[in-house]
């Protein structure tokens, strides 16, 4: 997978060193392996869980060679990262996609990339600029809508986000849109505000557009490592997240965070951002991801 080189180097850098640096599997080996997994941003909880599973399998299968632990590790990661069969079902339906996340993680860019992808598939796309607290966000999203050549509904700066969503739903219905993609404000420092606002937007969509499938994508910046995991925890408390977009995987060695998010929060990464360009969004493919880590 392009853009994942750094992640691979980092995870394998550490893990490979441990695997090849030992001639037998003992407590020291496990300790160093644990440290390598934590360094790769798997998170302590997940690293320990993986390690305890591996220990059981090493015993059961009478494994003596540290290099063979690599296959066990791969198996573990494949199991953790498995995506359910209906992960992308929303792409086959008339859908509303709510994009949530704190400022700066790549929400606007992701919306531009998604708009481009669905437009290229021949779908009718409408964007809603419901992050009305930042005038710049409205401008940026308008630019992306021009680039992707899709319609956008934008209110004035500081107008009511609910009203923008209401108008956007009306426009989506009138234009028989396949995809309505809504930007939202990401002020996580005020949990009650965020909850109220997302609640209001959800209510409007449920009431005015019940025929649409609802997908809620939380955007996380992979370069922030464990902070991304904290954000996911907090957003999970206020929103029905249906998937994660992990951005900036091209510039980081912290891709292990994908594993921590899935393992600790049971949230599936569905898309990855691998650059700033309009084409730099990929479906998350767990098999490819894990294989890339082990190539
Ligand atoms: P927002 O505040 O969440 O809407 O974030 P933006 O979409 O404005 O993105 C913030 C910065 O991150 C911009 O400079 C983007 O070009 C950059 N960015 C977004 N996604 C990616 C990505 O996948 N890779 C890289 N390298 N940069 C990205």
Automatic annotation (TrEMBL):
Keyword check for Transmembrane helix: no
SUPFAM superfamilies according to UniProt: Domain of the SRP/SRP receptor G-proteins (SSF47364), P-loop containing nucleoside triphosphate hydrolases (SSF52540)
Statement: the UniProt record of this protein carries the keyword Mitochondrion: no
A GO BP annotation: SRP-dependent cotranslational protein targeting to membrane
Gene Ontology MF term list: GTP binding; GTPase activity; signal recognition particle binding
Gene3D superfamilies for this protein: P-loop containing nucleotide triphosphate hydrolases, Signal recognition particle SRP54, nucleotide-binding domain
Domain AAA+ ATPase: 93-271
Compartmental location: Cell membrane; Cytoplasm
UniProt record similarity statement: Belongs to the GTP-binding SRP family. FtsY subfamily.
Quaternary structure (record): Part of the signal recognition particle protein translocation system, which is composed of SRP and FtsY.
Protein name: Signal recognition particle receptor FtsY
